[in-house]
Design a protein that fits this description.
The chain has 318 residues and is of the alpha/beta class. The protein has one domain: Rossmann fold (3-Layer(aba) Sandwich). It has eleven helices and seven strands. The strands form two sheets. Strands 1-2-3-7-6 form a five-stranded parallel beta sheet, sandwiched between helices. Helix 1 packs across helix 2, helix 1 runs antiparallel to helix 3 and helix 5 runs parallel beside helix 6. The protein starts with 6 loop residues before the first helix and ends in a 16-residue tail after the last helix.
Length: 318
C-alpha cells in the first residue's frame, strides 16, 4: 500500500495529471478539426503513470518515450506551447514542425525522443543507460513502452544486455491491455508482464497504474536501486487508455462495459477522493492549468508553418 504524501507532492501530482489531460483534450480537438497531420495517440486515462514516474527521477536523468508520449513530456515540464506547435507542424515547434506528434524531443530536460516504431525507443534508452555507466555518472534512465512492445525482440535483447551489465535503467511497461487492437491477454500466456524479469535475474514489479502514489513509490525504489549500481528493473503499470489507439479507432474490439469499469477508477477522481487537497486548492490548480493550456493553444495556432526552403535543413544524409 502506498504511503501518505506531502501537501506539496499532492499539488504536484494533481497539477501534472490535470495538465496532461487538458493538453490531450486540446490535441484531440485539433485532430477532429483536421488541423494536425498524422494520428493522435492520446494519453488520456494513463496520466498517473507519467506523473508518478517523473516525480521519481532527478533533472539529470534520461527518459525514453513512445508514440504515446505527450504525457511524459508534459509531466517532465516540457514547454507545452512548443509541444502543441510541433503537433500542428509549426516552425516554432520542438523539431521545427518536422517531427509532429510522434517525434517530439527535448534533450535539455532529458527527453531522448518519442518514437513511432513499436519498441524503437528501448535500444536508445538502453544506450543512454550504458553511456551513464561508462562515463561514471549517477544518471538513471526511465524507458517507457507499451504492452505490445514487450513482445518485440528489442525488449528482450536490451533487457538481457542491461541485466548482464547492471545498467542504471528502469523499464516501465504501460500495460493498457491493447497493442493497437490486439488484446494482450490473447497473445501472452502470462498476463503480468513484469514477471518476465525473472528470466533475466532482475526485479519486476506489477502495480496499479491508476494509483499515482503507488507508481511514484515503486519507481522511486527502482530508480534508487539503479542509481546505487544494483542494475535494471521492470515496472509494469496496469492502466487504460480511454480513447482508441489513435484518433480514428472506434474501439469496436473492446468488451462492452470495459471502458466504464476503468473510468470508475479514474486516477484523478480517485486522487481527489483521498482528501490530500481541498476543493479550493483543486479549483485553483485547474484554473491555473487552464490558463497555461489556453496560452499553449494560442501560441501554436498563431505560429507560422515552416517555409518551403526549410525542407532539407536538419536532414542527415550519407
Amino acid at each position: 500500500m502506498a504511503k501518505k504524501i506531502s501537501k506539496e507532492l499532492a499539488k504536484e501530482f494533481y497539477t501534472n495529471m490535470y495538465k496532461i489531460r487538458r493538453f490531450e483534450e486540446e490535441v484531440f480537438e485539433f485532430y477532429k478539426l483536421g488541423q494536425m497531420a498524422g494520428l493522435a495517440h492520446l494519453y488520456i486515462g494513463e496520466e498517473a503513470v507519467a506523473t508518478g514516474a517523473m516525480a521519481a527521477i532527478g533533472p539529470q536523468d534520461y527518459i525514453g518515450t513512445t508514440h504515446r508520449g505527450h504525457g511524459h513530456m508534459v509531466a517532465r515540464g516540457a514547454d507545452m506551447g512548443k509541444m502543441m506547435a510541433e503537433i500542428l507542424g509549426k516552425a516554432t515547434g520542438y523539431s521545427k514542425g518536422k517531427g509532429g506528434s510522434m517525434h517530439i524531443m527535448d534533450m535539455d530536460i532529458g527527453i531522448l525522443g518519442a518514437n513511432g516504431i513499436v519498441g524503437g525507443g528501448i535500444p536508445t534508452a538502453t544506450g543512454a543507460a550504458y553511456s551513464a555507466k561508462y562515463r561514471g555518472t549517477d544518471q538513471v534512465t526511465l524507458c517507457f513502452f507499451g504492452d505490445g512492445a514487450s513482445n518485440e525482440g528489442t525488449f528482450h535483447e536490451c533487457i538481457n544486455m542491461a541485466a548482464a551489465w547492471d545498467l542504471p535503467i528502469v523499464y516501465v511497461i504501460e500495460n493498457n491491455l491493447y497493442g493497437i487492437t490486439v488484446d494482450m491477454r490473447r497473445v501472452t500466456k502470462e498476463h503480468d508482464l513484469a514477471k518476465r524479469a525473472i528470466g533475466y535475474g532482475i526485479p519486476g514489479y506489477t502495480i496499479d497504474g491508476m494509483n499515482v502514489e503507488e507508481v511514484y513509490e515503486t519507481i522511486s525504489k527502482a530508480v534508487k536501486d539503479a542509481r546505487e549500481g544494483k542494475g535494471p528493473s521492470i515496472v509494469e503499470c496496469k492502466t487504460y487508455r480511454y480513447h482508441g489507439h489513435n484518433g480514428s479507432d472506434n474501439c469496436a474490439y473492446r468488451p462492452a462495459g470495459e471502458l466504464e469499469e476503468w473510468k470508475a477508477r479514474d486516477c484523478m477522481d480517485s486522487f481527489k477522493a483521498k482528501g490530500y487537497l481541498t476543493e479550493d486548492e483543486i479549483k485553483e490548480i485547474e484554473k491555473s492549468v487552464d490558463k497555461d493550456i489556453e496560452k499553449a493553444v494560442e501560441f501554436a495556432s498563431e505560429s507560422p508553418y515552416p517555409d518551403a526552403s526549410e525542407l532539407m535543413t536538419d536532414i542527415f544524409v550519407d
